[in-house]
Amino acid sequence: MDAHDARFEDRLTVVAGEIERLLDSLLAGEPQAGEIARPPRLVEAMRYTVLGGGKRLRPFLAVEAARLLGRAGPGALRAGAAIELLHCYSLVHDDLPSMDDDDLRRGKPTLHRAFDEATAILAGDALLTLAFDVLADAPTDEDATVRAELVLGLARAAGLGGMVGGQMLDLAAEGRYAAGPLGLGDIRRLQAMKTGALIAFSVEAGAIVGRANEGQRTALRAYGRALGAAFQVADDILDREASAETLGKRAGKDAEKGKATLVDALGLKAARAERDRLAGEAVAALAPFGAAADALRAAARFAAERQS
């Protein structure tokens, strides 16, 4: 590991710790203003799935993009925490028997196995709505226009034309619904929606909080899109090559379910080359920022080279 990567790992750990503490406070049992009560079992389930797991890469991207623009502080952390809450909701629902039917997530039983299916559905619903609660709340930013832009951006990335729509396309690609074979362009679009949109918005959220100008926004958008695509190709490769112990979840499920991936479309060797090309594209997009963007460059390399 070189010095740049060591600094990145240290910074990732620091941000993860800050996000963990914020998530812990956001998932407290005491009701907030406007709430009537927080059912203990629901709070317990939400805390089970959110706390103590994951690399917090999405919040890291939001925090570092804002920091790059001179806007480090609680607003970027809250935006990152909101994205992580929504990401965790998506994992809970993806793991359900009606979806991917997984028993293991982040090295422990999935939420519907640890609790029950109804609790898992409700916990996912609560995490989703809490994400927008956090973004819309005044402590996230003093400017209501900024908060509204964050809410709109996350809704677009996570909803019908983003993550949820991508999941629908993914289920169709498994053969559950009428759908023909997917071409390379179809697979790229599916992955850009299901995985890439939320990663790209994580960077965009930092740009929004950081008051990026149009040139900065354009560069950061290009970075986020390429990074999201590289992350998904790396995920496809890991599903084929890594063990369940390394991944902390079931391995080999893509091939088992007949999912459409770039590994299938291109083969492993070409998929690795595509992953590296996309990571390089993400790094190149940050050229206007010079050395100040080294943490984000390292994040692109990390997304491509990670082993879990």
Features:
Farnesyl Diphosphate Synthase, mainly alpha, single chain, 308 residues, 15 helices
Written overview of the protein:
The chain is an all-alpha fold and 308 residues long. The protein contains 15 helices and two strands. It has one domain: Orthogonal Bundle (Farnesyl Diphosphate Synthase), CATH 1.10.600. Strands 1-2 form a two-stranded antiparallel ribbon. The radius of gyration is 19 Å and the shape is globular.
**Global mean pLDDT:** 92
Using only CA atoms, what is the Rg?
A: 19 Å
- Major beta sheet, strand line-up: 1-2
- The helix fraction, in percent, is over 70%
Count up the domains. Answer: 1
Output the helix-strand order. Answer: HHHHEEHHHHHHHHHHH
Brief rundown of the structure:
Pfam families: polyprenyl_synt. This protein is an all-alpha fold and 308 residues long.
Strand and helix layout:
Layout: H1 3-26, H2 40-50, H3 57-68, H4 74-94, E1 104-105, E2 108-109, H5 111-114, H6 117-136, H7 144-158, H8 163-173, H9 184-209, H10 214-241, H11 244-247, H12 253-257, H13 262-266, H14 268-285, H15 294-305
Helix pairs in contact: 1-3, 1-4, 1-15, 2-6, 3-4, 3-9, 4-6, 4-9, 7-9, 8-9, 9-10, 10-14, 10-15, 14-15
